[in-house]
From TrEMBL:
Protein name: Uncharacterized protein
Highest taxon of source: Bacteria
Species, as recorded: Pedobacter africanus
Lineage, broadest ranks: Bacteria, Pseudomonadati, Bacteroidota, Sphingobacteriia, Sphingobacteriales
Length: 856
């Protein structure tokens, strides 16, 4: 037995050595050749030039940058390079050696005895009888069969890499004293490339996932296997939010979509159904050396200012009329904010059925305040698709487990060896250092101090470790009831606990001489920050503070200093005492529900009063007490957002958002004086309209069942500030309208400069047209209308005895606006027109409102 065991080891060892020797011998016969093919005269790279291994039938083509790479098995010693219009060139290579062979092709000049040139008017471009347009129409007609959705099943592995850098940095900037200890961070590249010579990487992320598509019933499933990114200190930067923001800006490019999303804008695809109406097409080359034969199709916008691409397509002439390669860029004059340069390259590979799938995409966008020079930011996203399988159905259980996106538990813990083995292409030496360099940077005291200052300025909170003070914008404000108002508060951070959170503030009004305060305690049920998705927490809180009835703000505190400036009379407020207990549960599929129990006491302040009789001033009451329970459902499929320090900002996309809320008043419970049922539902949707921009549409409806005083009815959202508010009625006064049933529609149309871009001189300003229309139809049942029910709580009147509060009993309230956006790239100004109820006191039929909005 012992002899047999020893003999087995010897034989296995000999076999292993033999295999290693054979492998070394085989590897010795492999020749790896790479390089770049350029024009010998202009030095420009030549994309999609053909090369062949001399003496064989194997070869390939250069990519969109003129680069190539080939591994040769066998004792071959020559490569032959060719391209239409250039002389064929043969290059000698050394077998068994990895080498770089750059090639310069000479233009093929033709000898002519005499050339006669006659001047004449250039014929106008037109689609009719244009062979380039006929070809693009064939590409459009064949789009359905060339898309992934043509197959019953598709599976592939997807590798993504995102790199974000400060770019176009001068030597003077690089050598500033502040960067004396940070020179290791800088990268250098060819100065002719996007981003310039000096780059300073500030973020990098890699992601490896397996994707599965099923046609019927349609389902897309993505399993994230590995995810690696630069992790900043959570006190300063929300890493998950940053990743979501970049994902929104740099989405996958599908040339077969009618519209392609780039930096949160939609650009019309050159092969969109209506592309011939917006693009000019030209046949610029025929590549006969490639199989199948390719046609090089150049395209450019009819109007250089429109949100359109320019570039080249390479179309297969095998009957599929598929895109084999694409190069997309934009005109420097395009109405796209802060974008100095944009370049996208798409490469396709052939499937076993001779059709094509996207194998690699590369998108680079350079941003800057100045279009020509100065420092900026450059983002580059590279996506590689491998292991592409068609019509190989996986087990049905794959689509049943989890949602559409599943992240394996150890995705963020993969080793360096795993990444080295699974990247389709190795990282460059410079990019491989980015993770380590930025980790070193974050440990430097100077960087921490800088980030602390920046975070305080941007987020509004000053961090003291387990506690942060803020928000700064609420420390001081003023109004007609409280006078000057000072406030100080803050909240705990994850440095104290990942499960327990506390928030508080105290405020004092120097006119009403009253203290206001707030205290809340929150317990996270999923051991994650209560500000991170998905939320799952229980919160108990008490708040005593003022509120303007009818003012509802999104993502902004009501005592924000800038909201202190208001038009018209603004002296009606409520003193509120809120006791609340809330439970919030979000799911990975972006469905959420919340349950709430609230005890609410509201008392009038300023010129607001609660009066049970129109004739007797002595029948006024001091307070209204209610107890209520609320169930709210929300579904926002595919929602993405950026998580800031103060609030979570949704990144608006094409997917609708559904809200449904039910509230029941509990009479006799915890002092509740009224029993009622309130229902509220809304749908928000962005409609992308190709070259006409996009429209944000909100449809909302509500119904209040029960006999109620007007403060418990639906007080419609009004705005008396000078800021344009998207969800409020900008020429409606606070507490002007109440209803117990209503329906509304809100349309905000952004044309993205479609009309201004066609007006000479004006188009140079890169302004954008905006329009809006809002309509509100509602009413009051007799039991809740004090004009018909003397026992109902009376509407508020002014000092002249004229109603300030009203029912919508003379038709709908309507207002609209036309405006100019993108002024100085950040400002929108609207001229707002009110169309109805113009006889009410202290209302204006016209108004100018402004809104600051940072957008691309």
């Amino acid at each position: 037995m012992r002899y047999t065991f020893g003999r087995s080891i010897i034989l296995n060892t000999i076999a292993l050595l033999a295999m290693v020797l054979l492998s070394i011998g085989a590897y010795a016969q492999q020749t790896v050749v790479s390089g770049t093919v350029t024009d010998a005269t202009t030095k420009e790279t030549i994309p999609y030039a053909s090369f062949m291994i001399t003496g064989s039938t194997k070869g390939g083509r250069t990519d969109a940058d003129g680069k190539y790479n080939i591994t040769i098995s066998g004792n071959y010693s020559q490569l032959t390079f060719s391209y239409v219009g250039y002389k064929t060139q043969v290059k000698t290579i050394k077998p068994g050696v990895a080498q770089v062979v750059n090639v310069q092709l000479q233009s093929e000049a033709m000898q002519m005895n005499e050339v006669v040139i006659k001047g004449g008017k250039k014929p106008p471009y037109r689609n009719k009888e244009n062979p380039a347009v006929e070809l693009i129409r064939k590409v459009i007609a064949n789009k359905p069969k060339n898309r992934m959705e043509n197959y019953d099943y598709v599976a592939y592995q997807k590798y993504e890499r995102m790199l974000f850098s400060m770019s176009n940095l001068s030597e003077k900037f690089k050598n500033k004293r502040i960067f004396r200890n940070y020179q290791f961070l800088f990268q250098e590249q060819d100065s002719t490339k996007i981003g310039g010579k000096n780059m300073l990487p500030v973020y990098q992320q890699e992601k490896l996932s397996n994707s599965y598509f099923r046609k019927n019933p349609e389902k897309m499933k993505t399993v994230v296997v590995a995810d690696k990114q630069v992790n900043f200190d959570e006190r300063f930067v929300d890493n998950e939010g940053l990743s979501s923001y970049f994902d929104r800006m740099y989405q996958d490019i599908d040339i077969y979509d009618n519209n392609i999303s780039v930096v949160s804008n939609l650009l019309l695809s050159p092969i969109a159904d209506g592309a011939p109406g917006f693009y000019k097409f030209f046949i610029t080359d025929t590549i006969k050396t490639h199989q199948p034969q390719l046609i090089e199709l150049s395209f450019t916008p009819r109007n250089k200012m429109d949100l359109l691409f320019e570039g080249k397509l390479y179309v297969t002439m095998d009957g599929n009329y598929a895109v084999q390669n694409a190069y997309l860029s934009v005109n420097k004059n395009i109405n796209l904010n802060f974008v100095r340069a944009l370049e996208a390259k798409l490469e396709f590979e052939q499937n076993p059925d001779s059709r094509y799938h996207l194998s690699k995409s590369n998108l680079i966008v350079d941003f800057g305040i100045s279009k020509k020079n100065g420092a900026g930011f450059t983002g580059e996203r590279t996506v590689t698709f491998t292991d592409y399988k068609i019509n190989q159905p996986p087990a049905d259980s794959l689509y049943l487990k989890g949602g559409t996106l599943v992240v394996v538990p150890d995705a963020k813990k993969k080793s360096e060896q795993f990444w080295a083995e699974n990247r389709p292409e190795a990282l460059s030496a410079a990019n491989a250092k980015v993770y380590r360099n930025l980790d070193t940077l974050q440990r430097m005291p100077g960087f921490k101090r800088t980030m602390d200052i920046v975070t305080t300025f941007v987020a509004g909170y000053k961090s003291f470790g387990p506690f942060e003070m803020g928000p700064v914008s609420t420390f001081y404000s003023f109004n007609n009831v409280e006078g000057f108002r000072l406030r100080l508060g803050g909240r705990t951070t994850t440095d104290l606990s990942k499960r327990y959170y506390f928030e508080t503030y105290a405020a004092y009004g120097f006119e009403d001489l009253k203290w206001k305060y707030f205290l809340s305690g929150t317990y996270s049920l999923n051991n994650k920050s209560i500000y991170a998705f998905p939320q799952n927490y229980v919160r108990a809180s008490f708040q005593r503070d003022t509120k303007i009835p009818g003012q509802e703000l999104q993502f902004v505190q009501e005592d924000n200093f800038l909201l202190s400036f208001k038009r018209g009379e603004n002296n009606m407020m409520l003193y509120n005492d809120f006791y609340r207990l809330d439970y919030v549960h979000e799911f990975e599929n972006h469905f959420s529900y919340s349950l709430g129990l609230r005890k609410w006491k509201q008392s009038p302040a300023g010129s607001l009063y609660f009066n049970n009789s129109a004739d007797n001033v002595f029948s006024r009451i001091n307070e209204i007490n209610t107890s209520e329970v609320t169930l709210q459902l929300r579904y926002a499929p595919h929602e993405k957002f950026y998580q800031g320090k103060v609030y979570r900002t949704p990144l608006v996309d094409k997917y609708p958002i559904f809200n449904l809320r039910y509230t029941a008043g509990l009479k006799g419970v915890l002092g509740g004086e009224y029993g009622y049922h309130n229902f509220l539902g809304s749908i928000d949707k962005r409609f992308y309209l190709s070259q006409l921009g996009y429209a944000d549409v909100t449809v909302e409806g509500g119904y209040n069942a029960g006999k109620l005083p007007f403060p418990l009815l639906s007080i419609h959202r009004a705005n008396q500030t000078y800021a344009y508010q998207l969800q409020s009625y900008n020429l409606m006064n606070f507490l002007e309208f109440v209803s117990d049933h209503y329906a509304s529609i809100n349309i905000d149309q952004n044309f993205n400069g479609f009309f201004f871009n066609k007006i000479p001189l004006l188009r140079e300003l890169k302004l954008r047209e905006v329009m809006s229309f809002k309509a509100l139809y509602g009413g009051l049942r007799d039991e809740n209308n004090p004009a018909k029910n003397p026992e109902a709580l009376q509407f508020v009147r002014n000092q002249n005895g004229v109603h300030i509060t009203n029912a919508l009993d003379n038709g709908p309230y309507m207002e609209g606006s036309v405006g100019i956006g993108n002024i100085f790239k950040v400002l929108r100004v609207d001229a707002v027109k009110r169309f109805s109820y113009l006889d009410h006191p202290n209302v204006s039929s016209w108004g100018i409102r402004a809104r600051v909005k940072f957008d691309f």
